[in-house]
Write a structure and sequence with these properties.
By secondary structure, this protein is mainly β. It has a single domain, classed as Tachylectin-2, Chain A (5 Propeller), CATH 2.115.10.20. Helices cover 4% and strands 50% of the residues. It has 1 helix and 23 strands. The strands form 6 sheets. It has a 5-stranded mixed β-sheet, with no helix packed on it. The longest helix has 13 residues. The two termini are 14 Å apart. The model has no long low-confidence stretch (mean pLDDT 94).
Length: 329
């Protein structure tokens, strides 16, 4: 791993209304910073939409009441992506409806205050008998003044006892107008084979999970950064999740991975020493502020080893250099 953060901040709040806090999305409304995320318990996989605010991107953060969702319900409604439009003063949210099985879709909601969101429509459906038989972790972005949605899409691979093996790759859709669409699918932009040097192969005997938690960020130099989560081939289950970066000069790729970017073993006693995953970045003062989920290795993942939020800060010049080094290998 060549790219290293210049600063690690966290956990952003040690106490929470929830056992686990995951899937953070960072938003700035011109006055206040917001974190939207999944709040719940990984033991029963029941989730609400967490909301925290701060006057400063580095905190301190205050967790407030969960978001009110009018028109969308379900235990697996989670992993919110929120985009703020300053001219219309509106928060635009997209959420998943399922992630542990096939099916599911991306739901679109709007809010004027960031507290109560109202359902508008389903913007991307899953497609049976395809690589998008299940879709989840949708994330909005604007690249070159065009609205996009990037998400994890998984084929319907049957496992034991009528369950499914979740092996998602990364897919892209483009809006032909507003956040409500219409949406044109561009298909797969990153799959397992593209990152096989740091991600478990589909046929690995100890396969854990696929590529998920994607986000696209337009960098000042014109490159497109794909921030997503992979799973290492080796190690104990529950300790193999990692954030990685891949870059391209076009929105549809190909994307070249520079590898994992958060080493949990830097501080073996830290709160994020076990593994890290689903992250959202935002460019602020010539740095990339990456809000991520992490947990310790000191306790078993099946006990009170809670997921918490942290921030990893990267110099944009370091990202460009890591990408240049990767292309020259």
């Amino acid at each position: 791993m060549d790219l290293k953060p210049t600063k690690i901040i966290g956990p952003l709040f040690t106490e929470s209304r929830f056992k686990d806090v995951k899937d953070p999305c960072i938003v700035y409304d011109g006055n206040m910073w917001h974190i939207y995320g999944s709040g719940g318990d990984v033991r029963n996989e029941k989730w609400s939409i967490l909301h925290a605010t701060s006057d400063n991107i580095e905190g301190p953060w205050q967790e407030i009441s969960s978001v009110i969702m009018n028109g969308v319900q379900g235990d697996h409604v989670a992993a919110p992506s929120v985009w703020y439009e300053p001219i219309e003063k509106t928060f635009h949210m997209v959420v998943q409806t399922e992630f542990t099985s096939v099916g599911g879709h991306a739901e679109y909601l709007v809010s004027s205050d960031g507290l109560t969101f109202n359902y508008v429509k389903t913007i991307v459906h899953s497609v049976p008998d395809s690589g998008e038989a299940g879709i989840y972790d949708p994330h909005q972005t604007v690249i070159n003044n065009t609205k996009y949605l990037v998400y994890a899409g998984t084929p319907a691979i049957e496992g034991f006892n009528n369950t499914y093996v979740i092996q998602p790759d990364i897919y892209l859709a483009e809006s032909k107008g507003s956040w409500s669409g219409s949406w044109e699918r561009h298909g797969k932009i990153l799959d397992h084979d593209h990152i096989d040097w740091h991600h478990n192969a589909r046929d690995h005997k100890e396969y854990e999970w696929g590529i998920e938690g994607p986000q696209l960020i337009e960098l000042p130099d014109g490159l497109i950064l794909l921030n997503a989560t992979c799973f290492l081939s080796e190690g104990v289950f529950g300790t193999r999740q990692r954030v990685f970066f891949a870059l391209s000069d076009t929105i549809v790729g190909p994307y070249n991975s520079i590898g994992t970017v958060l080493d949990p073993h830097t501080d073996p006693e830290s709160w994020y020493s076990g593994e890290n995953g689903h992250a959202t970045g935002i460019i602020h003062r010539n740095s990339l502020y990456l809000f991520f989920q992490g947990r310790s290795r000191l306790l078993s993942p099946t006990t009170e080893n809670n997921w918490r939020y942290g921030i990893a800060v990267y110099d944009l010049n370091d990202i460009a250099l890591a990408y240049k080094n990767r292309l020259s290998e």
